[in-house]
Amino acid sequence: MEPNLEFVPYQQVLFWYHICLQILRQYPPLSLSSLPPFCLSLLWNYKLNLTMDPKFESVAMEICKSTITEIKECSEEERGKGYLVSCLVDHRGNITEYQCHQYITKMTSIVFSDYRLICGFMDKCREDINTLRCGSINVGEKDIHSQGEVIACLEKALVREAEQQDQAHPIREECKKSIMRVAELSSDDFHLDRFLYFSCREDRERFCENTQAGEGKVYKCLFSHKFEEAMSEKCREALTTRQKLITQDYKVSYSLTKACKADLRKHRCNLDTNMPRAREARLSYLLLCLESAVHRGGWRRESVCVYMCMRGYKCYTLTVECVYMCMRGDKCHTLTVECLQTLIQSADPGSDYRIDRALNEACESVIQTACKHIRSGDPMILSCLMEHLYTEKMVEDCERRLLELQYFISRDWKLDPILYKKCQGDAARLCHTHGWNETSELMPPGAVFSCLYRHAYRTEEQGRRLSRDCKVEVQRILHQRALDVKLDPDLQKRCLTDLGKWLYDKTGKEQRRNSSMGSQSRGGKNREGTLECLQDHLEDLLSGCGEVVGNLTELQSEDIHIEALLIRACQPVIQSHCHDVSDNQVDTGDVMECLVQNKHQKEMNSKCTVGVTHFQLIQMKDFRFSYKFKMACKEDVLKLCPNIKKKVDVVICLSTTVRNDTLQDVKEQRVSLKCRKQLRVEELEMSEDIRLEPELYDVCKTDIGRLCSNVVFGNAQMMECLKERKKQLSQQCHQRVFKLQEGEMLDPELDYQLMRVCKQMIKRFCTDVDAKNMLQCLKQNKNSELMDPKCKQMITKRQITQNTDYRLNPILRKACKADIPKFCQPILNKASDDSELEGQVIGCLKLKYADQRLSPDCEDQIRVILQESALDYRLDPQLQIHCAEEIPGLCAEEAVAQEQTGQVEECLKANLLKIKHDLCKKEVLNMLKESKADVFVDPVLHTACALDLKHQCAAVTPGRGRQMSCLLESLQDKRVRLQPECKKRLQDRMDMWSYAAKVAPAEGFSDLAMQVMTSPSKNYILFIISLGVIVLFLVGLLCGRITKRVTRELKDR
């Protein structure tokens, strides 16, 4: 049986006290905290009686005379009420007198150290303490002699009663006043709230080490860190209780009392103690009084807004115009209007929009058209209205009223009944809200929702995730708040200065960029344009604003549905090409990746294209803004590319690492496989728009404006324009373009235009071909009847580019790595690292091919180039340069032919005698010389003699002029009958070679020997030469014996 502790005589207390002591003796493992509640209460009553016993005070006055004199605070305490001993216990660390120190040390175990501070409170709340059993002794890490636990217990009971919780004990009125008075006295210095002080002692050191005590500064600091993960649970509970007391009496908040004191007096808002309202409405009453004063004064909203902006308050009319006015220093009227939030909380229009008459009237037509499927009064009506914000169905007045209401809902999520219902348990479990009844006056705006958001996008490995229903609601809220900057408290608070700086010019007029989405609110600025502006100036933002904009952009990359206007604009493309990923409950960057890949589909409209491109441009500022890239490569970036932030730099760093590892044939690549796959995706996306490569774009901006002003960005069209006008580019731009082309030739998959134009041909001819050999495969199938003309034209462009410089042809470069320095070193000595050699090296190798001096691998590659350039003169840069006048003059019709099949080359050969320029004539003679070396490099002759080669020279090995010699011998052999066309072409070639020999005689012995060996009369020439040598030898022999005859006399000596 437990005793009734409401009125217990001292003797009975002593009796039960001995019973509790016997329990402790019988069960030694038990601690005080393990005792039954009635025992703890009895021990507390016993200790309280000892504290008030005058006998202990008499002994202290006799033993501690000098100490009492030294401690001024204790010497002034009233005698006979137990205050003196309590004071000495509280100052026991300062006692130096030996006997006094021993006595007080013994007393510390039986008296309350802070009893004197709350003595009046104890007198008025004794009955409630016993009834609620708040007088327990806690032996935890707190001071066991403090009454903080008792006060905290009563404060929690008071809060339960105010919240009308079940089985809440009604506290007597005089005790309530005492509780609030104690809370008020401790509002200045948090040390005086003993329970909170001991609960938050470590948290204060962790979060508010540099915050000075006094004026409620420590409270404010702790409130701001309440939802930090490092905040201890006990401190969080103590802070919550403190906040709930503030809602019942504003004086419990020192800063609020100080800020409102003059206004309350001025507008006669002193609290009427006889008012019939519940106690929790007191703060609301005072704030409503202030609001009424505002309306009586007739102040303009803009002026009120500016003042609040300057004072750091929040206002639903707070816009960028207001910020700009603040920055100019406009003077405004005084106002304290946190009451607006309280007013909204009291009405709670989130549960039934009809409570807000202005909203109901303004939005009636929208509700009837857009939300008629939802029953009247349903909370989902507000969500429906938000979904149609900035659409054709929305009207201006409804839009304005809706944003005003949503401003407050975004700052107090209790006003969203659906979110509150679905997420109440998650908020208590993950955000330590315990019922989610915190006031919002002293809590960071949106603190609870910020906590829910942090857990909404956690993976299973990270743990502590939201429930499915709550996550859906959190995503709904994120989608709604993305519609307008005013609905994001953190963004608006941290970016006021930057919004004023970047969104307005010096005259205060708006300097908005053309909205990428082409939609903005009729009455204000939607968040799309505002956030876009901040993202564009990300590097220039203040640190706080830059952080929140960066976090929002990072969130967008993970869930693009947050950008509602972008999703609306891209809906046709999503339905046609991205429906499989858009239907997923969790978007991990798949939708945006799909939109990028289908950016040039016919369903893509201009608004969606601009929106997607802008997001791509913003992603370049930080690799974290590409969710899939970040998740795939974050470990590789930390390991291989630390301290690099820009995405383009990270891509270059990782791709360089991959290339080096590949070239060195390392056993294990340093970049992980999943990162390499995503890296390929990023490289392909960057190749689509020159703006996605900032360094290239910056150096070529002037050239773009000068040469490609009519070309639109995207689809790699701007890059193609620069390539086609490469000779006209500035030096820096030309160097960058050359480096880009070098990379594309190494990896043709990065050539966006080639891959786009030849997409179907790649599927047809090169399905199983490695990406690095894609261009080579297309070149081999270029002349197929099934080849698409546009793709064929693109292949020719790339061949022309490759033939301008051997460095742009990786296969040739590898095959001729020994031949190039051996035969063409003078050309290399004059070359620069980043400009084309205009085909000089390839021309050098062609001559050596005719001389049959190249290595087999190099010879094979040069033969291919000779075959290709023989069909299309554009593939021979040197011929184009030196015969720039002759080609249009002598071969105009052939040059403009759509299909090049060697007509221009044949024309130049036929008109060799008419060519006046020596360099052009030399190039044509070189062509003749090359064709003489191998019939395969003369496509016209090869086509004409194809049957004869098959019949007469089938056994002859191709190469080194052998088959050409076979044809010439067949021409001389009267027994062989060649095809008429072949015979005619061969005779023409012989005439040309004969003329070439006269015009361009052999330059040296080696050249002469090569001409003889490749001559069709080689055997005859060799016979004549041999015969001449023999005759010369015989003549010399005979002449020698005649001139050197010796007489017999000389021999006999």
TrEMBL record:
Q: Name one GO molecular function term.
A: fibroblast growth factor binding
Record bears the keyword Transmembrane helix = yes
Cellular component annotations (GO), alphabetically ordered: Golgi membrane
Coiled-coil zones: none
Q: Per UniProt, which keywords does this protein have? A: Glycoprotein, Membrane, Repeat, Sialic acid, Signal, Transmembrane, Transmembrane helix
Q: Which residue spans traverse the membrane?
A: 1020-1043
How is the protein disposed in the membrane?
A: Single-pass type I membrane protein
Please name the InterPro entries in this protein's record: Cys-rich_GLG1_repeat, Cys-rich_GLG1_repeat_euk, GLG1
Name listed for the protein in its UniProt record: Golgi apparatus protein 1
Q: What is the lineage of its organism?
A: Eukaryota, Metazoa, Chordata, Craniata, Vertebrata
